[in-house]
Amino acid sequence: MPDRTTRERILDAALDLFGARGVDAVSLDEIARHVGVRKQTVLYWFDSKEVLVDAVLEKVAAELVVVIDAAVRAAPDDPLDRVDAVVRAVFRPAVRRPALLGLVREVSRLNQSQADRLAAHISPLVERAVHYLAAEMETGRLRTGDPRLIAALSYATVTGIATEPEALRTVGWVADQAGLRALRDELRAFLRAALTPS
């Protein structure tokens, strides 16, 4: 069990450091120092920095799936309430751990093979969301639209918060917990208005 704890500590440290400073700016030596182990211990668990980056992204994607699934199960049957619950669930980890937003920024800098592996983890979640939106639109419980575009716009909003903080600052946004909550609430209100049947 201690080895699993060491592996998890390495993943957590890497997530925080990659999110705060960027993948390229953080060395395996620095991660090892942060955890309090030798670089060889990091390499025991992760053969290379690329393997460690993949593991961090896989961990975040898996945690996101769990958080979203729990939010959907706990939400009322109303589709607007479920969409709202998912938005709140996606923002919750970022409010508690701002490095996650930095990690989202790093996703745009991944090489193609890493991006493809991340997409493989996220795609089933996106497909479920698109299918759900389409089914609810067909029943008339959500305004008819293109469910793929709505999912993409929502994703772009969340990733834009991470990748374009300077643009948000020009409109007075502050990158702190209160700022994240304000953005979350605006996105929730926007989606509710956009998806309410006329």
Compose a concise summary of this entry.
This protein is an all-alpha fold and 198 residues long. The chain has 10 helices and no strands. The longest helix has 28 residues, at 112-139.
Write the layout of secondary structure elements.
Layout: H1 2-21, H2 28-35, H3 39-45, H4 49-74, H5 79-96, H6 99-107, H7 112-139, H8 147-163, H9 165-169, H10 177-195
Please characterize this protein's 3D structure.
This protein has 198 residues and is mostly helical. The protein has one domain (49-195): Tetracycline Repressor, domain 2 (Orthogonal Bundle), CATH 1.10.357.10. It contains 10 helices and no strands. The protein has helices spanning 2-21, 28-35, 39-45, 49-74, 79-96, 99-107, 112-139, 147-163, 165-169, 177-195. Helix 1 packs across helix 4 and helix 4 crosses helix 5 (79-96). The radius of gyration is 18 Å and the shape is elongated. The mean pLDDT is 84.
